[in-house]
Amino acid sequence: MNVQLPLKLGRPTGVEMNALAEGARIEGNLICKGDLRLDGHAFGDVATDGRLVIGAQGVIKGGASGKNVHVYGKVEGKIDAIESIMLSATAKVVGDISAPKLVVEEGAQLSGKCTMQALRGVYASGDAHAKIA
């Protein structure tokens, strides 16, 4: 089962904000546009084209992907981010992670392989001013 969240909380920036509240549970893949805050439990892959925030009570048992992924809760599966992954002090991740930028706070737990590659399409090859991720 695939679910697309239609919930729009309206932000001044015009970016769609979706939410799965604490106590909510979804079984199957969750796909949405805009940002997503997950404080419930997801059993399947979770994907968004915006920022994905897994709250302190949030749990994903499956893959997680987004432009930026911030983990405060638990993820059992692969995490892919186009720009960055942030693991807070309360984060518990069992699975491989992949992103150009990674921030890990003291206390975060990660059991898996980490792959970091330069941002795609940001700098032309041979650019002397390219930043290293």
Structural topology:
Blueprint: E1 2-4, E2 17-20, E3 25-27, E4 29-32, E5 35-38, E6 41-43, E7 46-48, E8 51-54, E9 59-61, E10 64-71, E11 74-76, E12 79-87, E13 92-94, E14 97-98, E15 101-104, E16 109-111, E17 114-115
Explain what the structure shows.
The strands form 2 sheets. Strands 1, 2, 4, 5, 7, 8, 10, 12, 14, 15 and 17 form an 11-stranded parallel beta sheet that branches. This protein has a 6-stranded parallel beta sheet with strand order 3-6-9-11-13-16, with no helix packed on it. The protein is mainly beta and 133 residues long. It has strands spanning 2-4, 17-20, 25-27, 29-32, 35-38, 41-43, 46-48, 51-54, 59-61, 64-71, 74-76, 79-87, 92-94, 97-98, 101-104, 109-111, 114-115. The model is unreliable at 3-13 and 122-133 (pLDDT under 50).
Distance between the termini: 36 Å
Biggest pleated-sheet summary: 11 strands, parallel
**Beta-strand proportion:** over 45%
Number of helices: 0
Percent helix range: under 10%
Q: What is the H/E string?
A: EEEEEEEEEEEEEEEEE
Count of folded domains: 1
- SS-based class: mainly beta
Uncertain runs are: 3-13, 122-133
Mean pLDDT metric: 84
Specify Rg, calculated over alpha carbons.
Answer: 15 Å
SS elements, strand count: 17
Global geometry: globular
